[in-house]
Amino acid sequence: MKQFVEDLNYLKYTVFHPFDAFYEIKWRGKGNMLLATLLLAIYSIVQVISYQYTGYIINENALFEMNSIAIVTIALAPLFLFMISNWSV
Q: By C-alpha distance, which of 49, 39, 50 is closest to 76?
């Protein structure tokens, strides 16, 4: 649990010092795959909630046509496309 809290604090360091943090992630193994997966899952859930619960004045989505799998796919597709293209280069 202590390691997980340290990894959460490392996120703040990554935001304010991205070059140093990404160097440490790449060469010193500071990354945490569980935390990265958890953040992607939270992002997906927030996108679905945002689609459904945005205020009725600005929400132009037809809620009866909501497809949560499509929303998650659309939210994560650019990220996965970037990761695949970065890996292939």
A: 39
